[in-house]
């Protein structure tokens, strides 16, 4: 059983919902990411989603796009990201780590080389935004060879036939994008989210995590009532950027993000109480 499957099983037995923070590796600094990951775990994260910086992050809204720009300006590469995960693993061997990014860096490294390096570093899964299920066989084969999960996105507009195809190739969990458009945009319709999750579950037994549009304890609480996991990204990236803009240092940025995540954790856990 993978670390991700084990974590979801553990949480299900406890009647709890997974909290999955998203951060951009190398933002706000190369020396920040590992410390931030540990602080987020201490603040209630169950799985860490680490964004691999890319020059054209087409699925991201302005907040995370700027995070990618800052990370690239700091010189962050896929090799750096893998080294960060390896360093994180020196203290934490239990928290699952998911890399989210785009096909180009992985394909440039080579699917087999990437899979071996990621497994050695302690990565648990990969989500590549721009590899459709029709073209995933090559990377899926290599990820499966080393025991890494492949996470797929399902959008509000994804038809049932495509959901079924995705479900047949996914492992770990399915990531439901709760809003049309890019990250950080729009307002959540929890009723619509619940309806779409039921459709996904009719095709797959995998846990379903929901992201895009979850910004605070209230929005996280509403989604946690119907989903197996809640992903928080733009709000965390924005909180750190704002802390830096207001004159704070990297440690201040980490603490602001940790406080935000802790509040969201408390909101989610209110579901079960």
How would you characterize the overall build of this protein?
The structure is a single chain. By secondary structure, this protein is an alpha/beta fold. The protein has a single domain (3-269), classed as Alpha-Beta Barrel (TIM Barrel). Helices cover 49% and strands 14% of the residues. The protein contains twelve helices and nine strands. It has helices spanning 3-14, 33-42, 62-73, 78-89, 103-109, 111-121, 137-145, 160-169, 190-201, 217-224, 234-245, 250-269; strands at 18-24, 48-51, 97-101, 125-128, 149-150, 152-154, 174-177, 208-211, 229-232. A nine-stranded parallel β-sheet has the order 5-4-3-2-1-9-8-7-6. Strand 6 (152-154), helix 8 (160-169) and strand 7 (174-177) form a beta-alpha-beta unit. Helix 2 (33-42) runs parallel beside helix 12 (250-269) and helix 4 (78-89) runs parallel beside helix 6 (111-121). The protein starts with a helix and ends with a helix.
Features:
273 residues; alpha/beta; TIM Barrel; globular
Question: How far from one another are the termini?
Answer: 29 Å
Mean pLDDT across all amino acids: 93
* Text of the CATH class: Alpha Beta
Order of strands across the main sheet: 5-4-3-2-1-9-8-7-6
Number of strands: 9
Q: Find the structural class using helix and strand composition.
A: alpha/beta
Radius of gyration: 17 Å
Which percent bin holds the helix content?
40-55%
| Largest sheet data | 9 strands, parallel
How many domains? Answer: 1
Strand content: 5-15%
CATH topology: TIM Barrel
Helix count?
12
- Unreliable sequence segments: 181-185
Assigned CATH architecture: Alpha-Beta Barrel
CATH homology superfamily: Aldolase class I
Shape: globular
Order of helices and strands: HEHEHHEHHEHEEHEHEHEHH
């Amino acid at each position: 059983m993978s670390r991700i499957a084990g974590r979801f099983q553990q949480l299900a037995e406890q009647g709890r919902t997974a909290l999955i923070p998203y951060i951009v590796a190398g933002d706000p600094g190369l020396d920040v990411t590992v410390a931030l990951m540990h602080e987020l775990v201490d603040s209630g994260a169950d799985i860490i989603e680490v964004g691999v910086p890319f020059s054209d992050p087409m699925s991201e809204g302005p907040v995370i796009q700027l995070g990618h720009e800052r990370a690239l300006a700091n010189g962050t590469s896929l090799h750096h990201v893998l080294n960060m995960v390896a360093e994180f693993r020196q203290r934490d061997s239990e928290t699952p780590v998911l890399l989210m990014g785009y096909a180009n860096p992985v394909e440039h490294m080579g699917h087999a080389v990437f899979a071996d390096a990621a497994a050695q570093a302690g990565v648990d899964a990969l989500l590549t935004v721009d590899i459709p299920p029709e073209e995933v066989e090559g990377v899926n084969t290599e990820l499966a060879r080393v025991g890494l999960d492949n996470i797929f996105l399902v959008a509000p507009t994804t038809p049932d036939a495509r959901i079924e195809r995705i479900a047949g190739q996914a492992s770990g969990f399915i990531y439901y994008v709760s809003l049309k458009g890019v990250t950080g945009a729009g307002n959540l319709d929890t009723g619509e989210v619940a309806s779409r999750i039921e459709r996904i579950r009719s095709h797959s037994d995998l846990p379903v995590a929901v992201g895009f549009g979850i910004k605070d304890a209230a929005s996280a609480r509403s989604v946690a009532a119907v989903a197996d996991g809640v992903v928080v990204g733009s709000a965390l990236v924005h909180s750190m950027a704002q802390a830096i803009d207001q004159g704070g240092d990297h440690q201040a940025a980490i603490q602001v993000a940790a406080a935000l995540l802790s509040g969201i954790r408390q909101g989610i856990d209110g579901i079960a109480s």
